[in-house]
Amino acid sequence: MGRLPFDPDKMRGAPPPARAEKRKTDEPMTVSALASRIERAVADAFPARVTVRGEVSGARHRTHWYFNLKDESAVISAIMFASSAKRSKAQPADGSAVIARGRLDYYKPQGRLSLIVDSLTPDGLGSLDARFRALCDELRRLGWFDPAHKATLPAFPRRIAVLTSGSSAALRDVLDTTRRRCPAVDLLLVDISVQGERAAREIAATIRGLDADRERLGIDALLLTRGGGSPEDLWCFNDRDLARAIHDCRLPVVAAIGHESDTTVAELVADRRAATPTQAAMVLTPDRDALARQLDAMHARLARTVRVLLDTERRHLDTLSRRPVLADPGRIHRIHAERLAALSQRLTSAPKRLLDARRQNVDRLAAALHRCSPAAGHARLEGRLDALAARLDGAVARSLAGARHRIDRLAAVLDAVGPAAVLARGYSITTRPDGAVLRTAGDVEPGDRIITRLAEGTVHSIVDVESGDGSDRTPPARRRRSARKPARK
Predict the structure, then answer these.
(1) Which of these, 291, 18, 319, 73, lies nearest to 196 by C-alpha position?
(2) Average model confidence (pLDDT) for the chain?
(3) pLDDT tens across 309-344, in order?
(4) For residues 212 and 208, what is the distance between their CA atoms, to the nearest angstrom?
(5) For residue 70, what are the contacts with CB-CB under 8 A and spacing of at least 6?
(6) How far apart are the C-alpha atoms of 154 and 160, rounded to whole Å?
(7) What is the rounded distance in angstroms from the CA atom of residue 244 to the CA atom of residue 253?
(8) CA nearest 268: which of 213, 215, 224?
């Protein structure tokens, strides 16, 4: 049968061997004796092989694999020797969740309890790493990592609030760096817890308090920092409420948490992230020596500028002093006196010349106005109308005479060829009652009324028989009736 699993409750009933031994004697033990007892206690309390589920951190891949297995409240060292590492299908990586099988080993020369891993299988993403990634994704969607929301650091801060442990090496680095770079910057130390379950709430409350009293305290920026540590030690800086306090803080916040390779949510939300506390102090404080060099350079540049300006103005003054006008000030008076006399003479003669010019202009306008007066225009138009009337009378008389002569000629011709002359020669004209002239016998039918015009009077007749050859085929009775002619009108 294999060994039974270790049960802590059962162990509470009986005192541990070391404590029982202590009751027997108060003699001190050697370190080797104590280490041997710890080794035997571990061997007796745990089975030959144990299975552990945890998250990998601090992985180092050399000939053998060295890493830590952790959860939210504990860490244990683990080693996977080269022989087992060659057979393993999974390689430990920071943040990965694994199931490790092996044996516990207490290494007495170093006093270290380690898990000697024989096999390693993945168990999905580690819980701490998964929580870290999920929080980062959420804050990234909210825009808390956006550089556009980052505040600008003050160029010359008066006072900086340093949030860290009062006994930490990080505080000493900040103090030394600030004192060396710019002693004029005042540092306000705020002693806080930088690890543990309550650390995140304490830091968030401290940031909100300092932000509310920033004017009274004269604070221009916040520096949140701590030294290196394991991911578990730095876990308090991955808190959402702390991230909100940093994001809502109106003061610029610089964060330097752990080593350069460590990354926390507080650093990602802060307005500036620094790799180390020393770098954070350098980011916030100006360099006194650099400022002195810059001031010296500006002083030298200003001195050169002033010298160049003075030389230029001196040369300009020398040039002006050599001008005749400045050498003889009375010359200016004489020049202006001559100019004034000329202007006075021009002013005296100007009204007369102007009056003469205006008078000549008025005369020209009067002559033009006379030419354009209504009487003159009427006279010109009247003469033009008389000439036109005479020309019109002559043209009308000549036109009437020519027209009369043409009418007389046409009347003579018309009389010679007109119907009256033809009728006078014994001819007649036969028409219908509507005045249409009959030219052939076929133009009428029996029973039609016709009118015959003679030289003197007209004869009204009714057609009896139509005949195209001129023969009279009308019965005697009909001819007698047609012979009666109506009375002459």
Answers:
(1) 73
(2) 83
(3) 999 999 988 888 777 767 677 777 788 888 888 888
(4) 6
(5) 54, 55, 57, 76, 128, 230, 231, 232
(6) 10
(7) 12
(8) 224
CA torsion angle 229 106 118 123 (round to 10): -40
Rounded Cα distance, 29 and 38, in Å: 12
Q: 192 CB contacts (<8 Å, ≥6 apart)?
A: 163, 164, 165, 199, 202, 203, 206
> What is the per-residue pLDDT across 357-395, written as a single tens digit (0 to 9) for each?
888 988 888 888 877 878 777 877 888 888 888 888 888
- β-partners of residue 96 are 125
> What six digits make up the tokens of 78?
């683990």
Looking at the chain, the number of H-run helices and the number of E-run strands are: 17, 13
- Helix 17-24, helix 31-45: angle, nearest 10: 140
Which pair of structure tokens corresponds to residue 478?
A: 């009909």
In 3D space, the residue among 53, 61, 69, 60 whose CA is nearest the CA of residue 231 turns out to be 69
Please give the Cα distance from 94 to 103 (Å, whole number). Answer: 22
Return the residue matching tokens 């106005």. 369
C-alpha to C-alpha distance for 267 and 234, rounded to whole angstroms: 11
Q: How far is CA 4 from CA 7, 44, 106, 131, 346, in A?
A: 9, 10, 20, 35, 134
Beta bridge partners of 39: none
pLDDT on residue 225: 93
The values of phi and psi at residue 119, to 5°, are -140, 150
Q: Which residues pair with 302 in a beta bridge?
A: none
